[in-house]
Amino acid sequence: MSMMTSLPQFPWLSLLVLLPLVGALLCLLHSKRPADCRALALATSLAVFAVALYLFVCHGQSDGRWLLYEDVAWIERYGIRYVLAMDGIALLMVLLTAFMQLAAVLLAWRVERHVSSFFALLLLLEAGLMGIFLAYDLVLFYLFWEVALIPMFFLISVWGGANRRQAALKFFLYTLVGSFFMLIAIIALYQIHGAQSGVYTFVIGDLMQTQLTAAQEGWLFAGFMAAFLVKSPLVPFHTWLTDALTEAPAAGSLDLTGLLLKTGIYGLIRVAFPLFPNATENFLPVLGVLALVGLFHAAWAAYHQDDIKRLLAYSSISHLGLVVLGLAAWQLTAWEGSILLMVTHGITTGALFVLVSLIRERTGTRSMQELGGLWGQAPCLAFMFLLFSLASLGLPGLANFAGEILVLLGTFQQHPVWAVVALLGVVFAAAYMLRLVQGVLWGSTHKERVLPDLTMREWLILLPMAILVVWIGIYPEPFLAPLHGSVANLLAGGLP
Is the pLDDT of residue 448 over 80? Predict the structure, then answer.
């Protein structure tokens, strides 16, 4: 496939993966100088964000083809190629990753233990995530899938809370078992395609031409779904997430909820659905039911939490249930809404996790029983908490509403009953978010305490997120424009 870009010479996509890798290496080389590590991590994140923003500005109008495509022979003997490809969907995920990673570095600024290792792991995680969103060769995709798993395991197990080891192990085992089944499916598909065509390749576009029996397609599809549904995370594969999010350090929670949870859903869109169209068609009703069950189960669980971090963890599962429901509807508007909701959920819930960590730093607690009265003590912090909470519950005019309404409209056209049931789930979201706001911002203060308001560094993290939340809520079109062509092509069963 020819490289479809106005800049064929420059490997922009490789740069997005390599910059954080180089930054991670430099952080490790400066392990004796923590201040240098912080500066290096910030400079690297800024550089990656600048590249992502440049690509978004240049390629923000997608016509459905690949915006950028890099294809180099890698391990020729086994048909493994270094293929990175970016369409409008990948472009949005790359921009979200670069933006959230910048916030994560700023949030982790005051980490004191093993500073160089912490920032090196954050940057390695960014490289892995960029690779997942750009890889178009299954070996490369699997490699980045595993690369993103390792730094998160160490971030939780070394810098996490009291039960960090147990949470990290649970996260690692769940995702590793899912990945194992995906690896078996990748190898089997490679062998079947090679036996049929005489060409052994792992490139997704080529593997889409493989002729599979119904049984073969079903089993291979199940292998990929094992990996993607655990990461998504759909009920009943979700139990690792609440522990991981609760115990992770602040920057780890931000990356986990804002970015890592999106990789499973992205895997469905980019890999599982295009490769196995018949199995996908048969599975969509099951996927829709699982999404609705997750939406309600998690919303109900969120309402009964006292730890505000656990409440937000369950709210993430509920929101992602709505995202998956949009995909299961297999309708253009619903898909665009799902992908936009992935982006807006990353920003709003990510911002709420930032705020929870700031509240914990100031008060020493995350329990709603012990909080309250924040509005009178730290008004700027409280205002930000209110803004992102209202965005999270889907208030019209704020970011999540734009994605939610598109998902519900699109789903209603295909499955009216699903849409009506999902709407009730969205009402549940209002219940637990309003309980959260009431418990943290108002209510009675249990003891007199003087809380410092937002510092300059904290404003730098939260203000860009707040601007984006209002912007996408009022005018989402620039973020929907890259999706139109790519989504239409994927739904038609073709290549971007």
Answer: no
